[in-house]
Design brief:
With 229 residues, the chain is mainly alpha-helical. Helices cover 65% and strands 0% of the residues. It is built from 15 helices and no strands. Helix 6 packs parallel to helix 8 and helix 7 runs antiparallel to helix 8.
Amino acid sequence: MLISLFPSQSSKINELFTFSKDEYVSLITTSKTALQESRIRRSKLSLLLFDCKDQNAIQFMNEMDWNSLSDEYQNIYMRFKGQTDFDFVLNQYQTNQNVQIKSAALIGIGSTLNDDKIKYVFDNCLSGLVKAQEVPTLLNALKNNEKARPKIVDFVISQFNKILELYGDGFQFQTIIQVAYDSVTTEEEFNKLNLFFSKIENSTDSLSTVKRAGEMTRAKLDLVNKGFI
């Protein structure tokens, strides 16, 4: 949440935390730790890896054997691996029979930083690259991807009819709309999304989601405009 609110302050936020290999080496392969403590450790590791680009944390993950990771750290590893080895995570998604690993690999697919792979994911995610029910999860991973995030608004607008065809106006549809608004970082994107939905807002009851999501995004942009972010 801190990073999403204050992306320009990531270096200062990084100063609040330090990475210690000893803190993780005995825990990352086992789930036998208190739930709250485990959440804190995972959140801290994610922050250091993906937002602060902490070199010690990155080196530590590079040295890990993913087969030995506990379930709760596989998502982090696959997201990390997805940034450098798209084919590895795609292969795990397509061939691994372990449900947890497949789910983790899905996050990795959406984490690629390669422009061609990002285009490939957007071009094929509604056409069988992943299971239809997993597309919202994939889009959420793309939203957390600094290189893919700016493409989400245009994707949802251009593929809206296909999205509506696949999901109707149910929960998964609403999730995709929420992800689209959550991906907005500029007034231009916000206005483009609002203009699009203003023309179709009577086509489905569930577009009340648009109003709620839009209000939250408007509040975030107002903070930016006032210099708080």
